[in-house]
Amino acid sequence: MADFIGAVDQGTTSTRFMIFDHGGREVARHQLEHEQILPRAGWVEHNPLEIWDRTRTVIGSALTDSGLAMSDLAALGVTNQRETAIVWDRRTGRPYYNAIVWQDTRTDKIAAALEADGRSSVIRAKAGLPPATYFSAGKVQWLLDHVEGLRAAAEAGDALFGTPDTWVVWNLTGGPDGGVHVTDVTNASRTMLMNLQTLDWDEELLSFFGIPRAMLPTIAASSHATAYGATPATKGLTSVPVTGVLGDQQAATVGQVCFEPGEAKNTYGTGNFLILNTGTEIVRSTNGLLTTVAYQLGDAPAVYALEGSIAVTGSAVQWLRDQLGIINDAAEIEALAASVTDNGGVAFVPAFSGLFAPYWRSDARGVVVGLSRYNTRAHLARATLEAICYQSRDVVDAMAADSGVPITTLKVDGGVTANALCMQLQSDILGVPVSKPVVAETTALGAAYAAGLAVGFWSGTDELRTNWAEAQRWSPTWSAEDRESGYAVWRKAVERTLGWVDVSADGAR
C-alpha cells in the first residue's frame, strides 16, 4: 500500500490540499484563496469554476513540492464548506449560477414563510434544523425560481445540485465524462432535505422547497471504499480512490478523535462550530443548537451530534483587514489587540449574516457599541477577539443545558488558534482550560482519516486516538466576577443587534 493519504479541504475563503503519513503528521500542503463575491448587502457568492481550478492547482503543487506522485497516495479524502449551494449542467460541467455561500441571507423571506405557516416544526423534527438562511434548501429554491430554464433542466435530470464536496468529487472523478454525483450523510444533513432517521432525502421536505429529486446526489457513508469513485487514470497518472467525504466541522470532529459520546471540539475558522458527539442517539435541542450527523464509518450506524454554529468569527478579522483597513494582515490583530489591556468599554457583535446559534435571528445585524473618543483601533481589535470567544460561550452554555454535562476542557482547532491571545481570552471567558492539538488543521486530517479507514490504511478509531497529541494549553486567569460582568455586557450588546432588519413572510422588508 502507498505510504500517504491526501485530503482536499475546500473552505469558505480558500482551498488547500494536505498530505498525511501513517502517524497523522503533515507531510505537505498547498493553499490558495478564492474570490469572495459580494453583489449586494447580505449576498455572498463564490465562482465554482475558480474553486475547481484552485483544487487542481493545490493538489499538483503539494505533490510537486513534496516530491510525491499520485501513486504515493493510498486514497483521497474531501472536506468542505457546508450548506453552500452549487447547481451545474451535467453535460458540460458549467455552473448555472455562482455558488450561493452558507453566509448568504437572500433567502430570509423563504425561511420566514416556513416559520410562519408551521412547516418549521416538520423541518425541525425530520432534519433537526430550524428554517434559516444558513442551510442549502432555500438557496436551491431561490436558484430554481430565479435562473431561467433551470427548473426544467432540474426536472429532466440535466441540472445537478451539490454542496462543494459533491462539486469537487464530481470533477475529481471525471466531471462530464463519468463524474460521480454523490455526497455524504454529514453534508446531506445540512440541507434541510435529509431525514435524520432514514438518512435519505425526504419527499415531504423536498416538496416544501419545490426541489426535484432528480437533481440531488446519492447519499453515502462518510468513509466508504467504493461510493465516491476514483480519479481517472489519464495521461499516465495513477488512479486514486476517493474514499472519505465529510463536511468541514464533522471532519474536524473526526480529526480531533471525538469518537465517544460527550466528547466535543470547537473549530475556529470563517465561523466557529462547536460539535458534541451524542453517539447513535438523535438528541433534540431545546436551546438553539442543531441536531446533525457527526459521521458514518462504512456500514456502522451513523453517529449524531449537537452543533452550535456561529456565522462570523475569523471573517470578522477579515472584515477589519479588507473592509476597514485597520490591519494589513490577519496575523497583525494579535499584537494590536495586545497593545491595550482591555476593550476600553467597546463591544462588537459581528452579526453580518444575522445571528446563528443559539439565537437564530436573521433580523440581526452587526453592531459596535460603547464607543467614546478614548477608543482606538486597538480596542476594536480586542473587542473582535472577544466577540469570537463570547459567541463560543453562548454555544457552550446552550450545549451544557441540552446535554446536562458541562464542558470541562475545550478542544480547539482551526486557523484562529494560532492567535494565542484569542485562545487565552477563550479560556478566561469560559472559565475552563483550552487545549490545542499538534495538528491544528484537523479538518483536513479528519477527511484523511475517513479516507484511510475505508482502505485499511488505519485499522480503526483506536489507532487514530494514538495519533492525537496536545501542543498547547491555556488556563483561565480571570476571576468569576470579571467573567460574569464581561458576559453581561456582551449579552446587552447582542440585544442591540436584534430587529435591525425587518423580515416578514409576505416578502415585505
Taken from the alpha-carbon principal axes, the silhouette is globular
Into which percentage range does the β-strand content fall? 15-25%
Question: How much helix is in the residues?
Answer: 25-40%
Q: Which strand order does the major sheet show?
A: 16-17-15-14-20-21-22
What structural class should be given to the helix and strand makeup? alpha/beta
How many angstroms separate the termini? 59 Å
Number of helices: 16
Largest sheet: 7 strands, mixed
| Unreliable spans | 505-509
Strand count: 22
Mean pLDDT: 92
Rg, Å, rounded: 22 Å
Question: How would you describe this structure to a colleague?
Answer:
This protein is of the alpha/beta class. Helices cover 35% and strands 20% of the residues. The protein contains 16 helices and 22 strands. Strands 16-17-15-14-20-21-22 form a seven-stranded mixed β-sheet. It is globular. The chain starts with a strand and ends in a 12-residue tail after the last helix.
